[in-house]
Amino acid sequence: MMHKLGPFSVRWLTIFALCAVFAVGSAIAAEQTSPMTVIHGDLPPDIAPKNAYRAELYTLLLEATRPEFGDYRLRSYFAAEAAHRKALLLSSGVQLNIHFASPGTPVAAADVIQIPIDIQRGLLGYRVCLTTAQNSVPWAAVLDLKTLGSVRIGQVDSWPDFDIYKFNRLNLLGTPSFDGLFAMLSANRFDCLPLGVDEVSTLYREKKVKYANLRIEETLLIYYEFPTYIYVSAKRPDIAKRLSRGFEIIQKNGQFDRLYEQYIAQDLAALNLPARRIICLKSPYSSIAGQCSQQPVLPAIYRH
Known about the structure:
Order of helices and strands: HEHHEHEEEHEHEHEHEEEHHE
Shape: globular
Number of strands: 12
Distance between the termini: 72 Å
Largest sheet: 5 strands, mixed
CATH topology of the largest domain: D-Maltodextrin-Binding Protein, domain 2
CATH architecture of the largest domain: 3-Layer(aba) Sandwich
CATH class of the largest domain: Alpha Beta
Number of helices: 10
Helix content: 25-40%
Radius of gyration: 22 Å
């Protein structure tokens, strides 16, 4: 049975709603005072080594702009939040005001400002298979999209990558847990966990301690358009302006190139990318016309 609210109740509900709006607005206004506080959503590198590059990139961008924008505080807010929850936090701009993501993710669809610089330099779209020592796939016979269809691929089912593999009608096994993928792969539930060439070696070193039968496959390179951008809460255009200016500076003086190569050069050399066969997948999230109409070419800077 529904009950009508009296004038007194309506008045108090209105006051409560206005107070909530005022509290959020006040929190954001406080964060916009000097020094600027930038809050990202990554675990610290000492806990998650694969985050070291982004942590240093954020610092580099803020340091490069210190003469123009002043001091800053950089800190992380990390909780085991689902992607949609992180998107809500980023939209509000209080607990979290910057985060990295790719098109097609909840973060990219939130109330955000995109900094249109691919922080992974295009490499996240180049994927190498993590597999196992016991795997029986004849990798030398995997030559194109059709033969790739015989390979069982594992992927987090909430990630845009899952949609890309599904779009290409590949043999796909989904799971909600990224960590769970490694246990499933070790048990040979599937054949290939495709990981970006800039992350596969780090993750392999980290996970082989627990899963000793993991191996990096040596002949195949899967490619699809998959840029990674920094997204800033639309409530914090001041941060977006500062980071955009920071990219202008570090691209011009070469620091951006040097930082990225510092973290990936050795691992790329070990992967022997130029010798691998490239299989191109079409992405439903890409607006580029003629995807896979030509064989992808690895950028010269990465042909070590």
